[in-house]
Amino acid sequence: MKKERYLTTNQGVPISDNQNSQTIGERGPVLLQDVLFIEKLAHFDRERIPERVVHAKGAGAYGYFQVYRNMKTYTKAKFLQNPKEKIPVFVRFSTVTGGRGSADTVRDPRGFAVKFYTGDGNYDLVGNNLPVFFIRDAVKFPDMVHAFKGAPDNNIPSASSAHNRFWDFISLTPEATHMIVWLFSDRGTPKSYRMMEGFGVNTYMWVNAGGKAVYVKYHWKPKLGVHNLDRHEAARLAGLDPDYLIRDLWETIAGGGEVEYEICVQLMDIAEEFKQDFDPLDSTKTWPEKKFPLMPVGKMALNRNPGNFFAEVEQAAFCPASIVPGIEFSADKLLQGRTFSYADTQRHRLGANYLQIHVNRPLVPVNNNQRDGAMQSGEFSGPVNYEPNSLGGGMPKEDPMGVPPIYRVEGEVTRSKISLTNDFQQAGEKYRSLGKMDRGHLVDNFTADLMRIDKAIQKRVIENLVKADPELGGSVAEGLKL
């Protein structure tokens, strides 16, 4: 027999009547001294936190990661050393542009963010389902998002690309051409989060115990393979079941299924960086797999649904700046901006102490002198909240093993575009790599989306597509009767 539990206020005071406000007479008015009424409504008024500017709608799941073999040749990261160890993970999948109420199957990049709870603290691998991005420099990120989200005058649209503002920005940003060829293929409408690739997009560095560094790019490969929807089925599901992808993931795990991915990496010696016909640190580019083959590293299995969506999925916070020893940042301009912006966004949404929320909290002890702030729940005692100190026995002190490797950086302080852009080459290669049916879908998707756009913008888009591949640009132009 279950033990009876009685309602209480947030202070733990028993509630004897949860049905009626305290009033003067049975018809009121209500008294300000009704602390239960005030507490309930005041809390309810604050139940919504600001939604994410991007990646607002998402789904999450818990599981584990297991490396296949010791990776010490390339990195000293502890979670990549022991094949017998299962590292707990939390994953959040998301749509990028739409708000929390948008449909799951609209054409949009999908977020694929993994939090590894490692013995050296949390490592966040924050990526998308497409291997490239719209821009290469984070200074353009606010402009990009403003162009993609609702218009400032009428807020239309908020989860669709088929509008002048989206294509106006894209057509004037040639570096986005590669991304839109991916996005307007059927990859832009995945059939399931279980059947979707993930990419780190940015270039990081792995560093081994000897200090040798290599560039690295991450790829998640779904065990079930990659499966997508065509635009007609995606549009149908957006109307019939706008939560289709979230429901699919939840019901699969709730039914006892595991969702499995393999993580692979591409590695590049830093000495090879300037021997390519593209900039390897440019997030609008991929590394050719023939030259830099995929190396399987480990597997990830998701097998547990969250128990509380708000606490665990909505409050989950990821940031590319969350790295562990053995992983370092490259000079990738987009990555450099993301290392600041993501954590800053969470401080705005969730407060200065967002990392104390259970889903974001590392499994290892946290020792530093950061104190106070909204929602502080840490347990601190004693007179010391500074370093160096002697009153606290000098603790906590610096870790002598945590010294990062030394890199030489020199150059002029400047604001300039990288010299090796090649904005259209890989976009054309991607188009030519598609089969006949997929090429037809890509052209059809472009045509359907551009049909409602101003003619001047249509022509700019066509000019960029022609530079990528004359057949691609010509076919879209023909579909638009240009």
Give the key terms.
482 residues; alpha+beta; Catalase HpII,  Chain A, domain 1; 2 domains; 12 helices; 26% helix; globular
What does this structure look like?
The protein has 482 residues and is an alpha+beta fold. It has two domains: 57-360, Catalase core domain (Catalase HpII,  Chain A, domain 1); 425-479, no CATH class. The protein contains twelve helices and ten strands. The protein has helices spanning 35-45, 141-148, 164-171, 177-183, 231-240, 244-254, 309-314, 333-350, 425-433, 436-450, 455-468, 470-479, and strands spanning 57-67, 87-95, 110-118, 121-128, 198-199, 204-207, 213-222, 259-269, 295-304, 327-329. Strands 1, 2, 3, 4, 5, 6, 7, 8, 9 and 10 form a ten-stranded antiparallel sheet that branches. β6 and β7 form a beta hairpin. It starts with 34 loop residues before the first helix and ends with a helix.
